[in-house]
Design brief:
alpha/beta; Aspartate Aminotransferase, domain 2; Aspartate Aminotransferase, domain 1; 3 domains; seven-stranded mixed β-sheet; three-stranded antiparallel β-sheet; 12 strands; binds pyridoxal-5'-phosphate
Length: 488
């Protein structure tokens, strides 16, 4: 049944109904609008819904309840690290002493905020085994672009102008080749082996004096640890290139190993993923970039430094690869990440990776008879199924994702990575209990059973959501964002 407040707010409108009562205007003829030139004065009432305040409150409250977030249910969206966001992070980020700051205030007046920035950068350097970090980029992809600008600047400063190509594995996240293209670099693809790791034999012939570097993700987007990194590091460095580490999957190795120790020169970290900030719907984020010793000057301007008396100041370096943001990054996210690291503490930060890996392997092993696991063995924080084990009834990955909505789960990532036709990518994260994982496993098994015994119910899912199966291409290309468009 459609309840009154499930309707669109325009459908609730009744002519003359209002949500306010104001005292009679005692200054008729003297109102502010008397100064508005005739041609600019509104002659007709605006087309707004005429409703009571209660209608408005119910309308928006019910809309908000239709939203699915990590606070409402299990959110196994692979690659996105939808972990629990501790409430104390929000408390700190919304503290008036932070929220009342203006980004253009002089350094002397914002020493505390600069200290947070500086300390977080130092913590990230220790966690990743690199020398220095900028927190200025606003997202992971923005960090990639920044990192590649640093890589290019390194070669330019050495007068090595031939290096215009960057190597990207075929398993890479789509932002890797996109960032390289935005940076003006040519993309060369390196293939994966059957085990899902970068194929060293395919890499070797690609290496020459036109290679600026290689972008790698570890563990990669298949959730597999790249075991050949020492060899890859040796080969790429020998040919004069640099190694870039996409740190979006740092969650899996946090506290266990460090990109700097593996031989990487530049990396980004997605604070909103590994260090917890609510980022459903695509933001907000922050993508700090770290560099090994010797590359610090190339970090983007402004750089936050500390003088011998412990005061913080902004430094502009002439050798910098440039400036990538107006100010010092997404400061609310920086506060959340710093709070997260401080509240976990050194010992508990080291538990994040192992627990994320344990949870992922538990779900993978529990479901691998119902879903086809193309790459066997221990995974890291996430893993990929290639659709159902039994595909005879024609139920696809899209059908499974839609059916999960009926059971109150957010869908996993689907059709990515592109290496398999029916990819279902699951990342449980370390913050879920065994009970929640067991429930999810039971539902996944149930859907697999339905796919065989009653495939139509899966193929026509979802059945319980406010809207059914949408034409996603049309919805994305020709979105109807206003009431009039919907009616028209
Ligand atoms: C999320 C992700 C990115 C992009 O990060 P954004 O913060 O969304 O821009 C890049 N690489 C990988 C492997 C990712 O998972």
């Amino acid at each position: 049944m459609i309840r009154n407040y499930d309707k669109l707010i325009f459908e609730l409108s009744k002519e003359g109904r209002v949500g306010y009562s104001l005292p009679k205007n005692e200054f008729d003829g003297y109102c502010m609008c008397s100064g508005i030139p005739a041609g600019l004065k509104r002659e007709t009432t605006p087309e707004l819904p005429e409703v009571t305040e209660f209608d408005v409150v119910r309308h928006y409250t019910n809309l908000s309840n239709k939203n699915f977030g990590v606070d409402t249910g299990f959110y196994p969206l692979g690659s996105c690290t939808m972990k629990y966001n501790p409430r104390i992070n929000e408390e700190m980020a919304s503290h008036p002493l932070f929220t009342s700051l203006h980004p253009a205030m002089p350094s002397e007046a914002v020493q505390g905020a600069l200290e947070v920035y500086y300390n977080l950068a130092e913590s990230l350097a220790e966690i990743s085994g690199l020398s220095a970090f900028t927190l200025n980029p606003y997202a992971g992809a923005h960090g990639e672009l920044t990192g590649l600008m640093i890589m290019r600047q390194y070669h330019i400063q050495r007068g090595d102008l031939k290096r215009t190509k960057v190597i990207v594995p075929d398993s890479a996240h789509g932002t890797n080749p996109a960032s390289a293209a935005v940076c003006g670099l040519e993309i060369v693809e390196v293939k994966s082996t059957a085990n899902g790791t970068v194929d060293v034999e395919d890499l070797k012939p690609l290496l020459d004096d036109t290679i600026a570097g290689i972008m790698m993700t570890n563990p990669n987007t298949l959730g597999i640890f790249e075991t050949e990194i020492p060899e890859i590091s040796r080969l790429v460095h020998e040919c004069g290139g640099l190694l870039y580490y996409d740190g979006a999957n740092l969650n899996a190795v946090l506290g266990k190993c460090r990109p700097g120790d593996m031989g990487f020169d530049i990396m980004h970290i997605n604070l909103h993923k590994t260090f917890s900030t609510p980022h459903g719907g695509g933001g907000p984020g922050d993508g700090p970039v770290g560099v090994r010793a010797g590359l610090e000057a190339y970090l983007p301007n402004p750089q936050v430094k500390k003088d011998s008396e412990g005061r913080f100041y902004l430094h502009t370096d002439d050798n910098s690869a440039g400036s990538v943001s107006n100010f010092l990054g997404n400061f609310g996210v920086i506060i959340r990440a710093y709070t997260y690291i401080l509240t976990l503490g050194r010992e508990n930060v080291k538990m994040v990776g192992p627990l994320a890996v344990l949870n992922a392997n538990y779900v993978k092993e529990s479901l691998k008879s119902e879903y086809y696991l193309p790459i066997e063995g221990v995974c890291k924080h996430e893993f990929v199924f290639d659709g159902l084990a039994d595909k005879s009834t024609g139920v696809t990955t899209l059908d499974i994702a839609k059916r999960l909505l009926d059971y109150g789960y957010h869908a996993p990532t689907i059709y990515f990575p592109l290496l398999f036709h029916q990819s279902i990518m699951i990342e449980p994260t370390e913050t879920e209990s065994k009970e929640t994982l067991d429930e999810f496993i039971a539902v996944m098994k149930k859907v697999a059973k339905e796919a065989i015994e009653n495939p139509d119910v899966v193929k026509s899912a979802p059945h319980t959501t406010p809207v059914r199966r949408l034409d996603e291409t049309t919805a994305a290309r020709f979105p109807k964002t206003t009431y009039k468009q919907m009616k028209g």
